[in-house]
Amino acid sequence: MKKVIYPLLSLALLPLFSTAQETKITADDLFAKARKVAFDSKDYPQAIRLSKQALLQAPDYTDISIFLGRLYTWSDKIDSARTLFNELDLKDTKDEDFFLAYAALEYWNDRAEKASQLTDKGLGFHPQSQDLLLLKAKINYSANHYEVAENAVHQLLKIDPKNAEARSLAKNIEEYTAKNAIGLTYNFVYFDKQFDNNWHIVGLSYKRATPIGSVIFRTNYANKFAENGVQFEMEAYPRLSKLFYLYVGAAYSNNVGIFAKYRTGVSLYANLPHSFEGEIGYRQLYFSDNIWMYTASVGKYYQNFWFNLRTYLTPGEKNISQSYTGTVRYYTKGANDYFGFSAGTGLSPEENRNNLLDNAQYKLKTFKVGAEYNFSVKQSNLFSISGTYYNQEFRPKEKGNQLDIILGYIRKF
């Protein structure tokens, strides 16, 4: 009888055992649930509990340990995160994500030297890691180690020229890498109707990088309206934080009409998330009276491209004059190698034509389109050429054409 009952009982209970095995929650299941809770609900305490439960089943599951360390970091449990990452380090963990998580913890908690050591160690195992190279650049940029940051970001751009975040960072780093730079520009301006004589403007500049930002001194010589004039300029780009920096500019000339007597300007720039950047500021020109202009712009890096839209608003007695310019750049290599295209309306105070803003007879209804090409040779020699075509109503119902050509060279040392 027993020989019959036991087999029958086993057959009856077999589905129950099978169901229990099928419904058993594995470490992978708990890990997946922890990630979902963390990313979808931001419920880090629950994600920590699930990760710990998973590690009880699989103590050597490195990915879960790294994720738990990240959860501690995001929960501001710095000591717990550091202890866990140190244990993984003692186990000679070589995972790329481990070095990213541990270095990010130290970077966010103002231990740049330790963070940099971790990225270097991680790159020893993963030399092509874009994430580690980007983090290394950020760490050293924040610690004012600009040459190390520049090398890391340039190495990253060689691997992936379409990395928008790296390209945005490269532009910021560039302001601090070369201690000195000398620049020379020549601007030729042709008019078909508006003026009898072409214009010639030559600029000589010296740029000095300082711990708080770069300073530029510039002297401009111009021949306009068959007369000569000189202008002296100074610009500074002080860094306020990792997010914000300023533009501060001033200029003086004793040759009013060829140049404004005084020019000032201030802008606040912000390096925004997702490779966006923004600006808001003012420009002021003084000939015989003040002209005040207010400017705003927004830019975006996307793969090899940089998009920018800028406006200048000039309040008047009856209305507000408006200028809009859209610019697109396509980067071929580093921060100084690109093709650019622009189109817009109105006059800009940044242009060498800004003395036209003071002449009331001009309606200044302007359409413009331009192109530029910048390239570097051995990173120390920067060359540029640009051309802009203007179609401007300079008298009622009468338009003239103008062509600007600018050649430039900068030597960094």
TrEMBL record:
Domain of life of the source? Bacteria
Where does the record place the YaiO beta-barrel domain?
Answer: 179-351
Extract the SUPFAM superfamilies matched here.
TPR-like (SSF48452)
> Gene3D superfamilies, from UniProt?
Tetratricopeptide repeat domain
Checking InterPro entries in the record gives: Beta-barrel_YaiO, TPR-like_helical_dom_sf
- Signal sequence, renumbered to the chain: 1-20
Keyword check for Signal: yes
Keyword annotations for this protein, in alphabetical order, are: Signal
Signal as a keyword? yes
Q: What is this protein called?
A: YaiO beta-barrel domain-containing protein
Q: What's the source species for this entry?
A: Sphingobacterium athyrii
Give the organism's phylogenetic lineage. Bacteria, Pseudomonadati, Bacteroidota, Sphingobacteriia, Sphingobacteriales
